[in-house]
Amino acid sequence: MKFNATNVRASASAADLIFEALREAIFTGEIGAGEHLRQDALAEMFNTSRIPVREALSRLEQQGLVKTERYKGTTVTSLSVDEVREVFEFRALLEGEVIRYAVENMDDETIEKARRACDAFATETDSARYGELNRDFHYALYAKAERPYHLKIVSQALDRIESYLRAQLVLTDGMERARREHMGILEACIARDKERAAELTRAHILGASASLISFLETRENSK
Questions:
Q1: Can you give the pTM of this predicted structure?
Q2: What is the DSSP letter of 172?
Q3: Where is the HTH gntR-type domain (predicted)?
């Protein structure tokens, strides 16, 4: 297991730093599905005790990113194709409604913030930041929905598939398509057309799902 670890001995929030570092490593694939996470090894890597490591792993388990089994320890979870499909279908339903609420409250400041996020996504060359910038764009718009519980569930669903979503963006034609679709969603929000924004958001998510599932099935069949 190799990824960038931080010396957290002097930090008052060691568990937070370990949690963020491990989550990012899982998202980027530096720590792969099925890989074991040993508390003693992690404590040594982060130059800390096992207590904050245990807390960080517990938080990762709450998000569904790892699982802990008796006698087997903690491993990074994986998703089947059917599970990936279900998460994307759920996202399409929920985010389609969130963007409808958001358009009802849309203002020029939000549009400008979303436009900047859209531009940053379109010009970014570091593939490691694609997932982050994709979220920035969508969240800039969703914030105006004023539905914090909805957004919490959206965030949890995205966390569950983040590593898969990044793979879809980088390894398929996802980046170019996402750029075009983001612009379409933004234009619908500018026009204050909530039904069009919802339709495009759902199509955007389901299109990414189809592309990712095709990629996963091709990879599985080639083994």
A1: 0.73
A2: S
A3: 12-79
